[in-house]
């Protein structure tokens, strides 16, 4: 399969500054040696806790941040080496939907100018064509075209997120990065937006990178899922395989922690959820070693790499030999 | 026949028994906000009771009045623009709405305490966590701690109770030195410092990661048993409710539309809104079975334009003519199961 997006050896760290003179006192590794592929017409779920580097990853793919090392290749072109026309082409191909539908729409602009802005930037169509396209897009996301003259404050959260989706689709992207697109919405509205995204994918043959901290949403929408922990991908597998047979101890812990909407179901997390507040992992070893119930000496000494444990099921753990196939 | 009768009588007995043991009873509560655009009926006739030592989950979507209800119980509604215009809140046999300012202050933080959603912003950044916990005790329970030093000892014990390591040194920390989960533990310690009989938790885990959330829920469950506190848990997450509550009240546009035990709500929901909410939760294995998510059509109406009749009638898949005319009263199709829906008129 031809890859739409290829990420190789990506690293990004941020300096921690403290004191009066803002001296650099250390570094946080937001992305720590990540390899990842996105195939055409698929949804790749990216899941992890806050601060694990999900959003930094999105920013790097969108060429909003420069990585320290590694490269991101979209459709055969290196995103961070590209300039001018090529970069514009790439940016046109990758669009984004943000988490907060209240903060990501300019309150002073009408819906028509919000949605046509990407088309103006990328110089597509005449003024008339753009207005027609806006109406078409609004219909596509389930809103009516007579809303074009309204302002964002006249819409509810779910409707605003639909407008954000319409704006992202305005320039016919190939890849849509959805950074927590439904976590600010109510359950009933969340389901509407998820269904819309699924339908649009079939219709327009889009690829999604779907970022969320919510495992059930990720599990529902994704074809493949990457679990991130402290800037690293610790497990990568097809959605079914990941949920049927989670291999990494961190993935298991995450899954056990999701409160199931079934009363009386005894929580499965006994012994799995460590005291997260005591964090002091060794810099050389596995990032999860300080919390891991399976920890051995080698975990403190050496960083495990992603290993293909089963077909298309990768895990970064020294102890993977312990896991028997289901 | 005989058997069902027996069960019914037992259920009735249980109901009677429960009524006697209710810690908090809310009757026909109306909280309105008087704005230039008109009167917003944030709470419109809420009836609710919370038995002693139980946990009640209050669920609903944003804007349905969950937080207003929580604040009304403590009489913390900002006035103006808000006012409790009608109703009763009976707590341990006393109507809270009849108390004067001094008397309600003795109850706030002492007998009824509250935990808010944002642990980081609800702690004061310029005081140490120890002195913030000690303050509650010094304010309300002088008999337990006469001096600041004794109060700090209480604080240390509380921190130990909520599972914070080395509490003796932690009491000197400031909120910014703690993680989100730790801050929420401190908030819980503060809320429980006076051993209240009711703890209101308004979305206590929404801002936290799932693993931290699991720990905090587990902690709240243990503490409830340990110091016999009833919990009113306000949340939008049905998973959290299923895992940590005995009873559930579902709210929609300022009213409770269904109230039953957690088993009944999840196994046999009656109100179309509750059914819709349960179907809208993405389940991990649903996609494998090829099910698509069933969303509730439309949006939650704002308080300004609530439809006439049943407020859910414009989104309801089972809507009937009568629903457009009149707001449904309380029906009890089963003992201990309350629902406001015309479907259950018999």
Describe the SSE topology:
The complex is a heterodimer of chains A (326) and B (346).
Chain A: E1 5-18, E2 23-38, E3 43-47, H1 54-61, E4 69-74, E5 77-78, H2 84-93, E6 94-97, H3 111-121, H4 127-140, H5 157-169, E7 175-179, H6 187-204, E8 207-212, H7 215-221, E9 224-229, E10 232-238, H8 239-244, H9 249-257, H10 297-301, E11 307-310, E12 313-315
Parallel strand pairs in A: 3-8, 3-9, 6-7, 7-8
Antiparallel strand pairs in A: 1-2, 1-4, 4-5, 9-10, 10-12, 11-12
Chain B: H1 2-20, E1 22-35, E2 38-51, E3 55-59, H2 66-73, E4 82-91, E5 94-95, H3 101-107, E6 112-115, H4 119-122, H5 129-140, H6 148-161, H7 167-170, H8 180-192, E7 198-202, H9 210-227, E8 230-235, H10 238-244, E9 247-252, E10 255-261, H11 262-267, H12 272-280, E11 331-334, E12 337-339
Parallel strand pairs in B: 3-8, 3-9, 6-7, 7-8
Antiparallel strand pairs in B: 1-2, 1-4, 4-5, 9-10, 10-12, 11-12
Could you characterize the architecture of this molecule?
The complex is a heterodimer of chains A (326) and B (346). Chain A is built from ten helices and twelve strands. Helix content of chain A is 31%, strand content 24%. In chain A, the strands form two sheets. An eight-stranded mixed β-sheet of chain A has the order 6-7-8-3-9-10-12-11, sandwiched between helices. The radius of gyration of chain A is 21 Å and the shape is globular. Chain B is of the alpha/beta class. In chain B, helix 5 (129-140) packs parallel to helix 8. The chains are: A alpha/beta (326), B alpha/beta (346). The interface between A and B is large, with 46 and 50 residues.
């Amino acid at each position: 399969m031809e890859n739409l997006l290829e990420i190789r050896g990506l690293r990004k760290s941020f300096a921690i500054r403290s004191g009066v003179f803002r001296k650099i006192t250390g570094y946080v590794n937001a992305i720590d040696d990540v390899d990842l592929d996105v195939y055409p017409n698929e949804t790749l779920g990216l899941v992890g806790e806050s601060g694990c580097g999900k959003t930094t990853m999105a920013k790097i793919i969108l060429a909003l941040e420069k990585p320290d090392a590694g490269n991101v290749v979209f459709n055969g072109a290196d995103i961070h080496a590209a300039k001018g026309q090529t970069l514009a082409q790439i940016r046109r191909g990758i669009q984004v939907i943000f988490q907060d539908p209240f903060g990501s729409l300019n309150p002073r602009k009408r819906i028509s100018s919000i949605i046509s802005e990407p088309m103006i930037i990328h110089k597509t169509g005449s003024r008339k064509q753009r207005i027609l396209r806006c109406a078409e897009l609004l219909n596509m996301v389930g809103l009516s075209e007579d809303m074009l003259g309204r302002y964002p404050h006249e819409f509810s959260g779910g409707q605003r997120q639909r407008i954000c989706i319409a704006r992202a689709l305005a320039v016919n992207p190939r890849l849509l990065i959805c950074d927590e697109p439904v976590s600010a919405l109510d359950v009933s509205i969340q389901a509407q937006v998820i269904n819309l995204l699924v339908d649009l994918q079939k219709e327009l043959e889009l690829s999604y990178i779907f970022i969320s901290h919510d495992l059930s949403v990720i599990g529902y929408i994704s074809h493949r899922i990457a679990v991130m922990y402290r800037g690293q991908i610790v497990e990568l597998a097809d959605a079914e395989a990941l949920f049927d047979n989670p291999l990494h101890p961190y993935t298991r812990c995450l899954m056990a922690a999701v409160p199931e909407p079934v009363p009386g179901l005894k929580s499965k997390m006994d012994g799995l959820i460590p005291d997260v507040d005591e964090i002091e992992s060794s810099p050389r070893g596995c990032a999860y070693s300080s919390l891991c119930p399976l920890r051995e000496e080698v975990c403190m000494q050496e960083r495990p790499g992603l290993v293909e444990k089963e077909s298309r099921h990768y895990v970064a753990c020294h102890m993977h030999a312990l896991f028997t196939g289901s | 026949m005989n058997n069902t009768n027996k069960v019914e009588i037992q259920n009735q007995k249980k109901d009677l028994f429960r009524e006697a043991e209710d810690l908090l009873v809310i009757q026909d509560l109306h909280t309105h906000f008087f704005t230039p655009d008109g009167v917003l009926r944030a709470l419109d006739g809420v009836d609710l009771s919370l038995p002693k030592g139980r946990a009640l989950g209050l669920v609903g979507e944003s804007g349905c009045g969950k937080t207003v209800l929580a604040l009304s119980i403590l009489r913390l509604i900002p006035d103006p623009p808000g006012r409790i215009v009608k109703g009763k809140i009976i707590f341990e046999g006393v109507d809270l709405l009849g108390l004067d300012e001094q008397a309600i202050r003795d109850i706030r933080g002492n007998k009824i305490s509250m935990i808010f959603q944002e642990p980081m912003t609800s702690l004061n950044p310029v005081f140490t966590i120890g002195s913030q916990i000690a303050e509650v005790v010094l304010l309300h329970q002088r008999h337990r701690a006469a001096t600041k030093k004794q109060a700090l000892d209480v604080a240390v014990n509380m921190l130990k109770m909520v599972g914070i390591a080395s509490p003796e040194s932690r009491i000197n920390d400031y909120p910014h030195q703690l993680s989100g989960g730790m801050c929420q533990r401190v908030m819980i310690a503060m809320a429980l410092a006076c051993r209240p009989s009711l703890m209101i938790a308004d979305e206590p885990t929404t801002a936290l990661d799932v693993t931290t959330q699991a720990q905090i829920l587990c902690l709240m469950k243990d503490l409830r048993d340990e110091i016999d506190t009833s919990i009113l848990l306000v949340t939008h997450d049905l998973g959290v409710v299923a895992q940590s509550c005995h009873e559930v009240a579902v709210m929609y546009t300022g009213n409770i539309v269904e109230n039953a035990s957690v088993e009944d709500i999840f196994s046999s929901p009656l109100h179309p809104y509750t059914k819709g909410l349960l179907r809208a939760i993405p389940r991990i294995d649903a996609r494998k079975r090829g099910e698509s998510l069933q969303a509730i059509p439309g949006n939650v109406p704002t308080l300004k334009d609530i439809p006439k009749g049943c407020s859910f009638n414009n989104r309801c898949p089972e809507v009937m003519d009568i629903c457009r005319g009149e707001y449904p009263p309380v029906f009890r199709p089963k003992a201990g199961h309350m629902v406001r829906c015309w479907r259950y008129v018999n």
